[in-house]
Task: structure prediction
Amino acid sequence: MAQATSRRDALRAGVLLAPAYLWLTVAVFLPLSAMLFFSFLSAAPFTSANWHVTGLNYAEFLTRSIYPDLLGRSLLLAAIVTLACVLIGYPCAYVLARQVKGRAREALFLLIILPFWSNSLVRIFSWAIVLRGNGIIDHTLGALLPFVSVNLMFSYTAVVIGLVHSYLPYVILTSYLALQAIDESILEAARSLGAPFRTILFRLLLPLSLQGLAAGAVLIFVPVAGSFMEPRILGGKHGIFYGTLIEDQFVATFNWPLGAALSFILLAVVLVILAAASPILKRAR
Amino acid sequence: MSQPRGISRVLGRGYVGLVLFFLYAPILVMALMSFNASEFYAFPLSFTLDWYRRLWGNAGIVASAWRSLWIAVATTAIATVLGTAAALALFRYEFRGKRLLQALLFPPIAIPWLIIGTAMLIFFFWVGIGRGTPAVILGHVALALPYVIVVVAARLQTFDPQLEEAARSLGAGQWVVTRDVTLPWIASGVVAGALFAFAVSFDQFVVSYFLAQPGDATLPVVIYTAIRKGFTPEINAISTIIIAVSMAVMLAASRFFKFGGER
Result:
């Protein structure tokens, strides 16, 4: 590898790197800094000439219990969705990584992660069509059990189902990558010594794939804690969460400084979670 | 192969089948309903293409679809060029702060889009860019860049830097080396990165939602607004088209990029 001892190399590296990183600075890092500053303002400078620096937005979060309550509600939702995704996704990743081989594995794997790159809004809408009263679930159940009618639409359950559907491929993807890297001969050795599957799972598979599993869990927990579109569409009046609260500040009540403070509190929570997970995520490196 | 493991194999495949059913059934139901004549999604189904015809006549949706498409194309072009250049520099040169630059790629991926989107809204308003298509493109490129860099960098891992050395020692200049030696080798990674960038932009809802001008919005934003007013089979029709397009793009990407790693 070339050493950037010469000035020409340094110049070349700078020319290649500058456009991308300038772009990220203007579109991500400066906005995040601006938002931090904004969260300490009494009013938006471009809507009111009368603004000053204040800690009131954060004080409002602490004094009005509805805000911390909604944050807790969102974190609980994220925990439930993450747990469901892990419980459903890990066994699926195991089958793909250790039982299916060759082209069948490639095809199945592609089928699982294909939806994950397709439009999340459209997929949430598809659940609205399925779950609504008089929808297909209602009809199928009605045909089997007359007089039974289910309408899951606009409920907490609907929000959880939609979010699990959206984020399940993450945990399958990361767990699969970790599981397929495990050396088959270790598992063979354990089997030939008579270890039951339970022992292999808890003493070998889980510890050896923990990094992938944890990465998948973090990748689910963080965005779900900040979700607003899914609860809005599927939750109805049960769809009020911390994310929808932030959305309201920007598109409905136009209290941008409060919205900025609420966003930053969420960002702080996200960073704490990432920091807490980082020992597990780094361990296997 | 012993008998019990054969059974577990069947169970395993059945389970994967169930997961696939969960992932695809709602999408299929949604697509099916776009061909159903009843405005209220009533059964039994009776086939029609009316909703697609109506969609074509809906000037607002058609305009937003074209807007989404060309924003995605512009995002892809910009992010692919800038991202490939950055990935090359990170691969070729050793310098102080390189690890920091690599670490800086993760905030745009890891921070929830709600936070990034509202931060962009505040900043772009502050500096006078405001809302609208330029703001949307600024945002989309920033979200797509880290993906392009990571995907191209992964492909570069398989490239032997001695090939560049050899070309240089034969008298090729830096540009010729890049064009004739390095780029052909990483072409599949660049194509995959471009397709990822397209998907990030074309499917982007959250950031577009905060940055798009009302009345001048991208397709997902228009759909979100429509859904909140009430469902119509017309939304099913456009959603079916979107899902078909983005799945086709990702299927194309899969030919260039192994999601499951090598083996």
The radius of gyration of chain B is 23 Å.
